[in-house]
Every structure is written in structure tokens, then in C-alpha cells.
Write a structure and sequence with these properties.
One of its GO terms (biological process) is peptide catabolic process. The protein has about 600 residues and is α+β, with helices and mostly antiparallel strands. It contains 19 helices and 22 strands. It is globular, with a radius of gyration of 25 Å.
Amino acid sequence: KEPRGDPCSAANIDQATVTHMAIKWDVHFQLQMLIGSVSLDVKILKETDKVILDARDLSIRTVTVGGTEVEFRIIPNSYTSFGSKLWICLPEGKNRAGAELVINIAYSTSNEATALQWLTKEQTTDGKAPYLFSQCQAIHARSIVPCMDTPSVKATYTAEVSVPAGLFTVLMSAIGEGSKSDAKRTTFFFEQPVAIPSYLIAIVVGALEKRDISPRCAVWAESSVVEKAHWEFAETENILSCAESIVGPYIWGRYDMVCLPSSFPFGGMENPCLTFLTPTLIAGDRSLVSVIAHEIAHSWSGNLVTNANWEHFWLNEGFTVFIERKIGGRLEGETYRQFMSFNGWTNNLIPAVHQQFHPTHPYTKLVQEHEGVDPGMTFSVVPYEKGSALLFTLEQRLGGPEIFEPYVRDYFKHFSHKSINTDQWIEHLYNYFADQKEILDSIDFPSWLLNSGMPPAKPKYDEEMVVDCNTLINEWIEATQITVQGITREAYTAMKPLQQIICLSQLWQHDPPIEHYKLDAMNALYSLNDSENCEILLNWIRLCIKSRWEPIIPRAIRFLNSQGRLKYCRPVYRELYQWPICSEEVRENFLRTRKSMHPITAELIGMELDIK
């Protein structure tokens, strides 16, 4: 079936479509606004007297069609998170099917645009200059540019971005085309020749330096971070080449990354040509670069072949996780791929279904219904892990990687540059495996796709690496004050970092809490307080807090003050605050440091600490 309309967009995509956007922005840090215009190349699909765009908190000055000023209206949507409809009236002769026209809109953003985060220089790592970054996924592009804010519409774009002359560099999800300066301002130019959905429009402005990794890969960051980031992500070209060997040629020209300030509250974002990354990935041992594999995989799954709307988000993320782990298997061995997949099922999917939600919750379905729902509120690991598990199951049932990987390549070739829904995926799957229809028919697709809760069947995983984890976990749980002296560090240090993380996580979840003498021994053996791996530190700190091991308090507070990622800060602040011996110290630390926090982080942690 053809994709149905997007319930999260008011755009009249059945009557018109946008094929190109020409953006012009002046960046104003004091006002915290973008001021400028956008010209939209629009093609009329069916005769209509209007083009309807999505907009949120935009101040529209003028609208022209073909150079002639036209009437427009801004009509609020029923749901606040959807923003408003920008209703543009078309003149005679511009409304017939097949007509092509240019709509120019002069406008400015609000200083509360939901896609933009403005950081003071105090919130950056080096404190040299203020910083701006965007996050448009899922439906926030409409707050920085009037557009058809749905993944079912893809357009190329160019951009001219003007900033105060001096310290600033501008980057976008596009290929840089140089810059020019005068005494007061510098204008940067960009072109994205591959059509993309609006949620992949992205901008970064800051005091940034670049380090090349390969002819097509580089990393950007603030000066004090850029060398560390360059070393940490040095394998990016190898990962990208590995991805190409699995799913086909990389079409985006460049694969650059920007390591954002430590106050960045999120993990990463797959913006084309410019992946956004949290600095907490810099572990000093390249152990967290699976995130790079995930974002690289998005260059095909999501960016090249895109979910038609957010109800089919699993098509973006399920394929991406599946490919990410394929890359891990090629680089680290198939046993590691199996372990990552097992961990995704056991430590990600099961807690999401049974703790974050519940087994009958509609957001545990792969194909969801988003009528009147902000898709940001539905995000969880479910589309990632349940979708990946379905593809893992299909690969096993259909004959293994030698049979399934050519299908994956054909999937991306067949749907390249398109936005699709789950019905279209199923149809292509059955067409490709026409001679194996009996096997496909034996898979309970309705339960996998449409039912809530856990999938109807668990894939078969090689659990070789799980055995090593369970052995070490049980050794610590069963140890006594005498036998703990006999535990050596070799079993732990021989593990992959992901295995180490799982061991600490399982010990944290164990009841009763782990005894203090065991924590003393663990720290002495494994130097956990000194780990530069934030995932290991998080699980170690939470393990110690649960056991009320007082030596962890100063280390935990240093950890909180070293970065602002919500995934780490929120649980540690919450759990320290619930420990009476340090609750006041934690509140005081928050009050002292919140100016340097991202506003979202400060607000949410303030709620955890009962501070408004």
C-alpha cells in the first residue's frame, strides 16, 4: 500500500510536495533567534488552491509565490506539540496539477524554538564562545523552517548562514561550499544534493577545530577535545568501509562527525554528512565506537530509505541496529555480534517492555498509532530491539547471512531515496523470497508487527560470551570475606568492555545489595573509580550507591560535574539524593553547577531534587 498521510503533520502532501529548499539564516546569539528566509520549490500533485506547511512559533513576515506577495494564514493545530498550519493561498495559474512554483517565506524563529539549543560560553567545554546546535527529529524542524515536516517528503537543500565574524565555524547536514567575510559577519555556504526529510536538517555553530581521519571522514570539536576525539574515532573509515561491504556504496560524499560540548544531554544523531556525538563516547580505549557503527548504518537505514511516518519508526531503527551489529560481527567476530544481540534482547528489550512500559502498552508494538501523539513521547528501545530481533529471526529462518545479506542490499537498492511503510517492506520481502513463501508464511508477522509486548518467539543466540559473564557474576555473588581474596583480575580484563558493563549492571540489579568488602576488592582489582569509560563508571557508581558504599560519593559527584548527559546524570543525581548521608551535598552541588548545564538537564534534575 502507498503510505498514508502523516498524523503528525498538517501538510497537504497528497496535493503538493517540496523538492528543494534554499535557506538563508542570520544567527543572533543575543536574541537567540534565526532571522532569514526560505525558498521552497513546490510541485503541485493535484489541483489545489493552497499549500499547507508545518510551522511552530515562527514569526512570518511575508510570503511570495513566483515573486508575487500572496495571502497566508497561521492556524493553530489541535495539539500544541504539532505547532500550526501555515496556509498559503495559491494564485490563478499556479494551482493546476503538474505546476512547479517557488514559494519564498521571510520569517524568524522564536527564542524558544524547540529544535534549537543555545549554550552560553560557560556551558561549552573551552568557554571561548557561545554555541548553537539543533535537534529536529522527530517533529521539530517546523520550529526553525516552515516545511512539510514529515519523513514522507524529501527535498534537497542549500543554505547560507551568517554569523558574527571571528571565532565561529558553522556546520550543517550538508557539504560545505566555503565562506566569505566582511568586517562584521561571516557567511557559510552549504549544499545537500541528496533529497532528505526535514528531520535531518541540522546546524552547529561554535568555536570548532577539524581533524581529518581519511579523505572522506573528519571529526570536529572544541580545541581541548579535538585530539582526543580524533584518536577515539580513528577507526571511522574502517567502520564505514565495512558498512559498504554489507549494504552497498556510501552516497553522501563525506562522513564527518562533531563532538558536541559536554553539556549536550543526548547520545547522538545521524544527520547526513555530519553525525552529532556526545563527548561521553570518548572513553580513551575506543570501546564505545559501536555508536559510530550505529550512526553510519543510518546512512542507509533512515537517511536513504526512510520510514514514511513515525508510526513505522522501526524501519529506521530496527534495520540500523541489525546493520550496526553486522558491522560489529565483521570487525570483532560473529560471537560478538551474537552477544550484542543477546544483550539487546535481555538487557534492553525486556526491561523496556516490562518496566518502562508494560506488556499491553501500545508503545511496545512495532507498528504504532500516533494520531494526536507527539512521536517524541513514544521513543524507546522497542523499535530498535524488537525490529532488529525480527530481522535476526528472518535471517536465521531463511538460510543465514549468505542468503539474507543480498536481500538487505536489494532492499536498500529497491527503496533508495524513498519513504516507505511496513506494508511495502512486507511486499518486497515476499517478492524477493518468492521461492521461500512457505517459510515466510510460518513467521507470525501480525504478532511481531501489531501485537504489544514481547515478540512471539526469541531468536537463537550463541551465548558463549554470556557464559563468561555469568561465571564472573556468580563468583562475586558467592564470594565470602575469605574467598574474595582469591578472585583475580584476569577474567575481567580479558572481557570486552560490553561484557564488563553487563557484569556490573547485573551486580547492580542483584538483591540483596553487594557487600562493602566485595566493592573494596572490585575497585582494588579493576580500578573502577579510575575508568574513563562512562558506561562502566555509570554502572559502578549505581552499584556502589545501592550498597551505600560511602567512598563512592566524591567520585560520583566528580562524574556528575564532568558531563551533562541525561542518561548518566539523572539516575545518579536521583539515587544520591535518596541517600540521606549525601542528599544535602548533592542539592548544593546542583545549585552551584546548574548554570553550566543544558536547560533540559537542569530542569529534569531539578525535578528529581525537588528544586523548581
